[in-house]
Design a protein that fits this description.
The chain has 161 residues and is of the alpha+beta class. The chain is built from three helices and nine strands. Strand 3 and strand 4 form a beta hairpin. The longest helix has 32 residues. The chain is elongated, with a radius of gyration of 21 Å.
């Protein structure tokens, strides 16, 4: 085999190995940056999706008095930036996607009963403090809210630290 071709093959293989190693490292760093850790040291991984929430908690009731109109949240690993209306009702936590012009983007609003929110842990969302909520036992999904929205929910007398 020609030495030039052999050196190109070796160079390509080394480059691919470096790219894969970099991708694995970045995945681990990003997972650590967005993870939620309970006070006893357990990590609460992202789980579920908006579709999983819809399957269990879809609602047709309109959102009466939202505490946030264009909030950013994370449901599982999916992020919904500046397009979620959040309501705090006696029946539960009301979430609805509201994208300008597109509407709900085909996603139904959900009303999560308070007793289905089984755990919360400090987390990060867009490099800011947040709170990850575990929905259901076994876990249906996780919802990560900014700390300010979580504090608003606490002030209304729902949930606990």
């Amino acid at each position: 085999m020609d030495p030039v071709v052999l050196s190109m093959i070796v160079e390509t293989v080394v480059t691919l190995i470096l790219v894969v190693a970099f991708a694995v490292l970045m995945k681990k760093l990003l997972a650590r940056a967005t993870s939620a850790v309970t006070p006893d040291g357990r990590v609460i991984p992202s789980a579920g999706s908006w579709s999983a929430l819809e399957a269990h908690f879809a609602t047709t009731t309109p959102l009466a008095d939202p505490v946030a109109r264009a909030a950013s949240i994370m449901v599982g690993r999916g992020t919904w930036k500046n397009c979620v209306a959040i309501g705090v009702e006696p029946a539960g936590l009301h979430l609805a996607i509201r994208i300008p012009i597109l509407g709900s983007f085909g996603k139904k609003p959900v009303l999560i009963p308070w007793d289905e929110i089984v755990e919360s842990a400090p987390s990060r969302l867009y490099w800011g403090p947040a709170r990850r909520l575990v929905i259901g036992r076994p876990t249906i999904a996780t919802v990560t809210l900014t700390e300010s929205i979580f504090e608003t929910i606490l002030a209304r007398g729902h949930l606990a630290r």
